[in-house]
Amino acid sequence: MAFSLNSYPVVYRAKYSGAWEEGYIEKPHKTQAEEAALPEVERERLIASRNYFDDMPLVGYSTQYGLSVFEGLKALPQKDGGLAIFRPGKNAARFFRSMKGLYLPPFPEDLFVKACLEVVRRNAALGFTPKYSQDWEKDSFSQADAVYIRPFTYSEGGVGVKLSREPWVLIVCTTVGPYFEPGLKGAEVSERTRATPNGTGWIKAASNYVISAMAKHEAAQRGFMECIYLDALERKYVEEGSSCNIFFYLKSGELVTPELGDTILPGITRESIIELARDKGINVSERRISIDEALSETRECFVSGTAAGAAPIESLTYKGRTVEFSGGKRGDLTAEIHDTIKAIQYGRIADSKGWMVRV
Ligand SMILES: *Cc1c(COP(=O)(O)O)cnc(C)c1O
After folding, report:
1. What is the average pLDDT across 227-239?
2. Is the confidence at residue 32, as pLDDT, over 90?
3. Is the pLDDT confidence value at 1 over 50?
4. 8-state DSSP, 205
5. Where are the alpha helices (DSSP H) in 38-163?
6. Helix 88-101 to helix 109-125 angle, to the nearest 10 degrees?
7. Which of 75, 111, 148, 348 could form a disulfide with 120 if both were Cys (CB 3.0 to 4.6 A apart)?
8. Where does residue 276 fall: left (phi above 0), alpha (psi -120 to 50 degrees), or beta otherwise?
9. What contacts 292, CB < 8 A, 6 or more positions away?
10. What is the band of 178 on the pLDDT scale with cuts at 50, 70, 90?
11. pLDDT confidence band for 3 (50 / 70 / 90)
């Protein structure tokens, strides 16, 4: 339920063959209200049918070898009406870098932003759009709806281990709710390695997420909500979560997040939180932090990402030993940062940074 595919009818599709050729595809749909009234099975079948394209190749570098990059961003209902997207230019720039990183012909940043806005607009025009609710303010938007926008690349057909020269870029929209499964708590340090030096950890590349999904499954079986990765070489320094960056608010008052390198994904939420925390007068460092320092010096810990927001990590388990942070509850700074970022995103407080782009 939390992060399930609930495809909206309009999909953006561009194809590269020397230049980008763009189009919008409208998949079968009824009105949102009519769909909601359908029997569950019929409704699910209709939504699932929007996830098929029979003119795209089944066997290609994306399906066979995971040669694909993606993005994730949100269009959020605004308190004064309408929708706005959080920092889409940043996602455009990262998508461009990711594509170049996999030697794909990079997708122009201006096309990316325009297409994200337009696909949300076209779905909204058909009635597929969430509406702002005053109730969301009661718990700082933890239950709030948004349109999740998922741009990704898809390769042309081919069976050899090769790079893609003429990929598609698709942008689909789906509804999302809370990211973490209810009932699970805390994080464990995974034995697995998410990313290696000289690899693709800094790229939002599809192939990176297989290990993440495995590690997260293993963590969940032991009752943990999230898993944390250490660096591959020394297995000493904290890198990030399964698809989130990580912050430690130390007893000294320093807020630490691991410095970027080629094994850490440069999150836009991470960058925004660093800026917001500095504005609040907090001493923020981007530096290496060992698991031993993190376990002994932390007063609050949280992970950050588009889907997660700023989600508290109440405890960390490493080699069978569990350390609780802020009494096993969400800490005050974590709450303040989460609330500030959500209030900006949903237009409950003024967007003094110019981060929101109106749909
Ligand atoms: C997407 C992602 C993040 C978070 O990035 P945001 O831009 O904040 O959503 C962090 N780590 C990994 C591995 C990711 O894939």
Report:
1. 97
2. no
3. no
4. B
5. 40-49, 61-65, 88-101, 109-125
6. 120
7. 75
8. alpha
9. 236
10. low
11. low
d(C-alpha 145, C-alpha 231), whole Å: 35
Provide the 10 A C-beta neighbour count for residue 193.
18
- The pLDDT tens digits for 42-86 are 998 998 889 888 899 999 999 999 999 999 999 999 999 999 999
Backbone angles phi, psi at 276, to 5 degrees: -65, -40
Backbone φ and ψ of 291, nearest 5°: -65, -35
187-345 CATH: 3.20.10.10
**For residue 306, how far is its CA from the centre of ligand 1 (angstroms)?**
7
Q: Which amino acid residue places its CA nearest to atom 12 of ligand 1?
A: 243
State the Cα–Cα distance between residues 258 and 253, nearest whole angstrom.
16
pLDDT tens digits along 252-308: 999 999 999 999 999 999 999 999 999 999 999 999 999 999 999 999 999 999 988
Q: Residue holding tokens 């699970």?
A: 184
Select from 270, 274, 337 the residue to mutate for testing ligand 1; criterion: most ligand atoms less than 8 Å from CB: 270
- pLDDT (mean) for 224-231: 96
Q: Using CA positions, which residue lies closest to atom 5 of ligand 1?
A: 267
- Assigned architecture for domain 10-176: 2-Layer Sandwich (3.30)
Nearest Cα to 263, choosing from 227, 239, 287, 235?
Answer: 239
Which atom from ligand 1 is nearest to the alpha carbon of 204?
A: 15
CA of 265 to the centre of ligand 1 (A): 6
What is the rounded average pLDDT for all residues in the chain? Answer: 94
Task: Domain ranges for the chain, please list them.
Answer: 10-176, 187-345
